[in-house]
Amino acid sequence: MAAVVEVEVGGAAGERDLEEVDLSDLSPEERWRIEHARMHAKHRGHEAMHAEMVLILIATLVVAQLLLVQWKQRHPRSYNMVTLFQMWVVPLYFTVKLHWWRFLVIWVLFSAVTAFVTFRATRKPLVQTTPRLVYKWFLLIYKISYATGIVGYMAVMFTLFGINLLFRVKPEDAMDFGISLLFYGLYYGVLERDFAEMCADYMASTIGFYSASGMPTKHLSDSVCAVCGQQIFVDVNEEGIIENTYRLSCNHVFHEFCIRGWCIVGKKQTCPYCKEKVDLKRMFSNPWERPHVMYGQLLDWLRYLVAWQPVIIGLVQGINYTLGLE
């Protein structure tokens, strides 16, 4: 067993001693101590530089947040499109760089099916079955991401409480498993909601009962669902969709599946026709359904971290490099 290495870190001589230590014969704990001491020796006397870098980071975060808020308020369509593109592409760069092939395979499969669904949703004229196909696909991904995130969170918590030892699973393996599932659930949950919102806008505008910026181009009949454009009440010998209906507080009636997909999957909290605010607590009165609403709100918050945080950190590093800070 290698002897414990003790190195005094003091001035240039201490730094030379640290550099001359051979780490190959040391234990992992001893190597960590030496590397930690090397880092402290390297950064000694740079306190002013570090303070300046922290100030640059804080200032960049504040300015970036203000600019993003203004962009989102003034030009929400372009903001959402750029955010969606970044969330879709940025993880791909890290995946290829770090050789995360499992994530890459899942990403390719998700992207292929989502591209097909998005293509169907943006066609004119809109096929009658397309709205339900779109909401079924994104609702499926939403439920899978929700379940995956819950399992990942439970795995992390079980590891923190040591329950993994009952199954003879190493803590690092259990934690890696939990964090991976949590990441998969949150990432694809954020991504599918943004794609679903874009598809919902296109389909509703094509059907004609909804316009994001103006008045609808069609008058809504009491017997038609404004989300899918299909008849709500169908005769025995007539083609159509037979299912439960839901009446909003504005008295407009929709297929229950359609309005739930519109509000939860498509991130819309207004009536598809008159734009009156939807009371989600009234719509999801069952306590077991309330977590879906909170999970959706969590995903909306996380999209900022996924899409813009890497860009802001990269901008900070560019500023530090330009100013000669390291």
Shape: elongated
The DSSP helix count reads: 11
- The overall pLDDT, averaged over residues, is 77
Task: Encode the helix/strand succession as letters.
Answer: HHHHHHHEEHHHH
What is the structural class? mainly alpha
Q: What's the arrangement of strands in the largest beta sheet?
A: 1-2
Name the beta content range. under 5%
For the termini, the CA-CA separation is 37 Å
Low-confidence stretches: 1-16
Give the helix level as a range of percent. 55-70%
Largest sheet: 2 strands, antiparallel
Number of strand elements: 2
Radius of gyration: 27 Å
Description:
This protein is mainly alpha-helical and 326 residues long. Among the domains are: 100-207; 218-291, Zinc/RING finger domain, C3HC4 (zinc finger) (Herpes Virus-1). It is 65% helix and 2% strand. The chain is built from eleven helices and two strands, in the order αααααααββαααα. The protein has helices spanning 11-20, 28-43, 47-74, 76-98, 101-121, 130-160, 171-207, 256-265, 280-283, 290-307, 309-322, and strands at 245-247, 253-255. The protein has a two-stranded antiparallel ribbon. Strand 1 (245-247) and strand 2 (253-255) form a beta hairpin. The longest helix is centred in the middle third of the chain and has 37 residues, at 171-207. The chain is elongated, with a radius of gyration of 27 Å. Residues 1-16 have low confidence and may be disordered.
